Amino acid sequence: MTGTLIESLLARMTLGEKLGQMTMATAGGATTGPVRGEATTESLRKGEAGSLLNIWGKQATEGFQRLAVEETRLGIPLFFGCDVLHGHKTAFPIPLAEAGAFDPGLWERTARAAAAEAAADGADLTFAPMLDTARDPRWGRMAEGFGEDPLLGARFAAAKVLGFQGDLASPASVAATAKHFVGGGAALAGREYAAADISDRALHETYLPPFRAAVQAGCAAIMAAFNSVNGVPMTAHVPLLRGWLRQKLGFDGVIMSDYAAIEELIDHGIAADRVEAGALALKAGVDLDMVSGVYLSALPEALARGLVEMADIDAAVRRILTLKQKLGLFDDPYRRIRAPAPPPDRELALEAARGCVTLLTNNGALPLGATTRRIAVIGPLADAREEMVGPWTLAADASQCVSVLDGLRAALPECDIVHAAGVSIRGGDDSGIAEAVALCDGAEVVVLCLGEAANMSGEASSRAHPGLPGRQRQLAEAVLASGRPVVALLSSGRPLIVPWLAERADALVATWFLGVAAGQAIAEVLTGRIDPAGRLPATWPQEVGQIPIFYAERPASRPLKDNDPFTSKYIDAPNDPQFPFGHGLSYARVELDRLRLGQSEFSARDILRVEVDAKNLSDRPSLQTVFLFARDRVASAAPPLLELKDWAKVALAPGETRTVTFTLAAQALACLGPDLTPRLEPGDFDISVGLSADRRALLSAPLVCRPLS
């Protein structure tokens, strides 16, 4: 019946109606670039748009849907796409922060809650999850993704797709769009929209795995990236869109452009005009033109000139109509719009925020003592509800967020908590520093709240100097000189390069942008009611000159050696990051001991068993993340120094020892051969476990792969 309906519609559609289905238009909602051909009542009646983006709210979406269903010739319903990156009305932690929880179950539940809220606000599809592997914190969109590791990205992708979609026809589900395919996180110099030069090996090892996982999880749509990869803009990249996605993976969902990206093929220099741009995108496999209007206006000429065929257009329309059918829109075009809105899940938002707070350093200043009587809360991020939401949320109400100041006052009602911003996030006015420092004089501890504004991360927010903007360093220097213990909190959408603060503060905490429950979660961690459990999903650099930086680098021809000038090193900075991937402290003292392998040799069909004891040597409970790494000592391609193979979270009571067990298919140790297909090569491996990717602190054991007889 499904195929019959779609084929019947296709047979009745004019060329203009087909191109309308292939057009996503704005209609007064949020935009991320120039508006081309905004949808009007008249254009919708003519069927010149099959979907609208970033329009939400029951009244608005029902009005547009009624136009499409009741006042167009064929009555084909619209679908509404909306950016729901980390919550809709209820803001959850930004994805980079949430990735640091290393908790796929949490990732799925927050996506499910966000989907229910967005669907009840009229959305049928979200432009998420963002699956760009990111190893350059200058790039602002690092905030929207999972960080640097492809295994982490693959698990994040699967969880988010399952959470958003569930039963796709359900009025509480939305279609997921895996984006940006592919390589945006490798943008030249960290600049948004810039070209990416990525080797074929890096593409297949690092950048494609999260998208493979999204497709395997059933994602309904994929968005082509703005950037070019190795000279070919992704919106026209036949080998990756038609070849890898369609043919190799068998992806049969909708491929859409990013905002106005089809027209931007002219700016890339591969199309002379809109006709050529539209033809290139369609032949590459892009079904849906977001905003540029190129398909609607230019494909008729491209068809007449023989640049495209009607079969190309029909295939794209067929996939778009199939998506609408899977969303249940032909059965009930108002199924989401008229569904009851779920209550805000603030408990889930609090749980998520708690799991993302990352303790970077601690010289004993934390947790705050129960007898603390006076705290000075200083800095421009202390009482900044609007910044706690984080970048790129459309419907969230910042007034519902809990600030750090609010959270501490609620957690410590008997404590005298004084506050001064001192400086603004941006700007050069330092006249408030003296007042702020004066408040520190009588305080037992200073909580120094620094960082970025929310809109300094996200799209079009690359920063050449990802440190503290404005006069925040001057404020921090003055507070550090006060002689009081200083707990520094960093609100940001990326690692901030502040080595001087890491060295001098008595404690340093990455609080990211944690959403509606930010202040409460932060206060619970600072006071020790919750053990800090967040771990870094991205390596944290000491200097801008170390970027790009990540733990899984390949060995140098001359590895770093003490007292040897002719090795791979800087002459003006250390090689080591400020903090490694996976770093995060607990208030408990936890050690790993007795690494055991189930066997010393294995072959391709084996299942490997790895055990290690996690010991809590303190009188406090702790939630730890234990990482399993591997290294192939000799391979046909130079192997990374470490590769993440799994992780496990373990709750430890005071004084408790628990055995953490990993089971790993032997094929997980395969590398990509010269033809970029996985193969398990016989030879020696190192299996390692640790609380981060700091190679000096790992427990390791050898393992030998034998060829199958």
UniProtKB/TrEMBL annotation:
Source superkingdom: Bacteria
InterPro entries linked to this entry: Cellulose_Degrad_GH3, Fn3-like, GH, Glyco_hydro_3_C, Glyco_hydro_3_C_sf, Glyco_hydro_3_N, Glyco_hydro_3_N_sf, Ig-like_fold
Organism: Rhodoblastus acidophilus
Keyword Secreted attached: no
Pfam families associated with the record: Fn3-like, Glyco_hydro_3, Glyco_hydro_3_C
One of the record's GO molecular function terms: beta-glucosidase activity
EC numbers: 3.2.1.21
Reaction(s) catalysed by this chain's protein: Hydrolysis of terminal, non-reducing beta-D-glucosyl residues with release of beta-D-glucose
Entry-linked SMART domains: Fn3_like (SM01217)
Any single GO BP term: glucan catabolic process
UniProt protein name: beta-glucosidase
Domain Fibronectin type III-like: 624-693
Keywords from the named record: Glycosidase, Hydrolase, Signal
